């Protein structure tokens, strides 16, 4: 609800927008401007806000006086939401809208364009780097419960930075700002180089480095593996194919259960003040080896990006609440709801869903399903339709509204891969603006080879 000592999460709201933008871009734009008003002028963001007073707070970070009061990831999710919005609407003028800065919880501190807000977010991450040149963790990254002493680095923040830098580069390219696009492309390449030289441990990708350089989530140090430390290097365009193959093999061997992928393993078995919150949960619960339904769609996305449609659909099937509708006494949440987490196989109540209706979980499930598995996603240059269907699925139909046009989409198997709009053949997977601009509706026919992707 966002009431009481805590509030509504900045990062979760930015991620929720990823699925809300296609439903109501105008409403999403005004909510995003509100979120940007919770950004400090140094580029970082307040972690939470009260929905009625609109007063922000530092969230859990307030609980440990000796730790940073900012989070390494919050501000970067706003860049992702803004890029998704502009891809949906095609209106890069959104970058010239303004939003206030908020350096104190109770007052604004001037204002700046959305473009400045996004640039400051990236600059904050670059200016707060640790001994490997990777982004500092701050109080925590997406995983609220890894709370390391100041100076720790987050590999997830490095990937998130790379992912959003590429998206903003593409947005700048589409508006003719080739210098801006090149600058952001170079930032991506730099971060990739630092990440690849520090985070690969020979077996899988490490998740964090403590201030003294010790890896966390590494085969060669604590022996732990984190799911998002393997999926995000693929999503960010960092991982080489060879490393991604090894990382995903270890990932599936150590983290995959019949109910989905565990967040990490082995679990912590008692409170460890050096790592913080994660070690306060019993083994198999929440971030301590639970099955987070928020992180599972990231693995689905990585599988689609790696050209593994059958694996993507199998992973999605395992977390789909409908897959478990015959066992209501085990799942115990509403059978149509992606819960925040399901207890993992280190817990005696393995399979029990907890905290339904919470965080960006449903949003990411939607992004993985619609944008990656069905492959229908906006781009600056038009609508991409690039399905990643499993071999045993014959096709699907969908209706999608995009930039004022209703797309009536039919995907079926049986022939050479090709795509036609109103009977005219197109090259590749993009429906360019010229093929639909000004038309109230178009028929889009996609033919895929008889089995598997071309
Ligand atoms: O990412 C967080 C979210 O912001 C709040 N719930 C838990 C998630 C993982 O720690």
Task: Tell me what you see in this structure.
The chain is α+β, with helices and mostly antiparallel strands and 454 residues long. Helices cover 35% and strands 17% of the residues. Strand 16 (376-379) and strand 17 form a beta hairpin. The chain is globular and about 65 Å long. Residues 9, 11-12, 142-145, 287, 359 line the site of 5-hydroxymethyl-3,4-dihydroxypiperidine.
Q: What is the number of E strands?
A: 23
Oligomer: single chain
Biggest beta sheet attributes: 5 strands, mixed
Mean pLDDT over the full residue set: 96
Residue fraction in strands = 15-25%
Q: Percent helix among the residues?
A: 25-40%
Figure out the total of helices. 12
- The geometry reads as globular
Low-confidence stretches: none
Radius of gyration (CA) equals: 22 Å
Structural class based on helices, strands and sheet pairing = alpha+beta
Bound molecules: 5-hydroxymethyl-3,4-dihydroxypiperidine
Quick synopsis:
The chain has 454 residues and is an alpha+beta fold.
How does the SSE layout of this entry go?
Elements (H helix, E strand, L loop, with lengths): L7 E2 H11 L4 H12 L11 E2 L6 E2 L16 H16 L8 E3 L10 E3 H14 L25 E2 H20 L3 H22 L8 E2 L5 E2 L8 E2 H9 L5 H15 E2 L2 E2 L2 E2 L25 E2 L3 H10 L3 H11 L8 H4 L9 E2 L10 E2 L6 H13 L2 E4 L2 E4 L9 E8 L2 E9 L4 E4 L2 E3 L3 E3 L8 E8 L6
Parallel strand pairs: 19-23
Antiparallel strand pairs: 1-2, 2-3, 4-5, 6-7, 7-8, 9-12, 10-11, 13-14, 14-15, 16-17, 17-22, 18-19, 20-21, 20-23
Bound molecules: 5-hydroxymethyl-3,4-dihydroxypiperidine (IFM).
């Amino acid at each position: 609800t966002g009431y009481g000592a805590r509030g509504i999460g900045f990062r979760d709201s930015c991620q929720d927008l990823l699925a809300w933008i296609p439903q109501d871009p105008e409403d999403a734009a005004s909510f995003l401007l509100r979120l940007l008003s919770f950004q400090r002028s140094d580029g970082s963001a307040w972690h939470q806000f009260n929905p009625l007073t609109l007063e922000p707070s530092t969230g859990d970070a307030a609980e440990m006086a000796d730790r940073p009061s900012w989070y390494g990831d919050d501000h970067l999710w706003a860049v992702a939401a803004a890029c998704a919005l502009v891809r949906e609407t095609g209106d890069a003028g959104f970058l010239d809208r303004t939003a206030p800065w908020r350096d104190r919880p109770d007052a604004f501190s001037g204002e700046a364009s959305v473009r400045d807000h996004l640039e400051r977010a990236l600059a904050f991450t670059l200016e707060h780097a640790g001994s490997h040149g990777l982004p500092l963790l701050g109080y925590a990254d997406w995983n609220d419960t890894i709370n390391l002493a100041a100076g720790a680095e987050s590999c997830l923040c490095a990937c998130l930075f790379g992912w959003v830098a590429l998206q903003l580069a593409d947005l700048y390219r589409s508006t003719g700002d080739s210098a801006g696009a090149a600058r952001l492309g170079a930032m991506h390449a730099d971060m990739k180089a630092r990440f690849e030289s520090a985070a690969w441990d020979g077996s899988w990708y490490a998740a964090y480095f403590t201030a003294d350089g010790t890896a966390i989530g590494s085969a060669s140090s604590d022996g732990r593996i984190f799911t998002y430390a393997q999926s995000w290097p693929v999503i960010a365009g960092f991982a080489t194919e060879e490393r991604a193959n090894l990382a995903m093999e270890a990932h599936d061997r150590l983290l995959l259960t019949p109910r989905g992928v565990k967040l990490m393993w082995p679990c912590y078995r008692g409170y460890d003040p050096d790592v913080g919150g994660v070690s306060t949960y019993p083994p198999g619960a929440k971030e301590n080896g639970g099955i987070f339904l928020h992180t599972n769609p990231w693995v689905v996305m990585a599988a689609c990006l790696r050209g593994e449609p059958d694996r993507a659909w199998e992973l999605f099937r395992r977390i789909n609440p409908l897959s478990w509708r015959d066992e209501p006494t085990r799942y115990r949440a509403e059978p149509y709801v992606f819960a925040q987490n399901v207890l993992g196989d280190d817990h005696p109540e393995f399979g029990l869903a907890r905290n339904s209706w919470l965080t960006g979980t449903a949003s990411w499930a939607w992004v993985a399903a619609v944008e990656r598995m069905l492959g229908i996603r906006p781009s600056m240059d038009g609508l991409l339709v690039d399905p990643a269907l499993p071999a045993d699925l014959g096709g699907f139909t969908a209706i999608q509204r995009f930039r004022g046009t209703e797309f009536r989409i039919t995907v079926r198997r049986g022939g050479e891969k090709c795509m036609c709009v109103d009977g005219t053949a197109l090259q590749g997977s993009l429906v360019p603006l010229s093929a639909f601009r000004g038309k109230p509706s178009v028929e889009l026919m996609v033919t895929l080879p008889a089995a598997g992707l071309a």
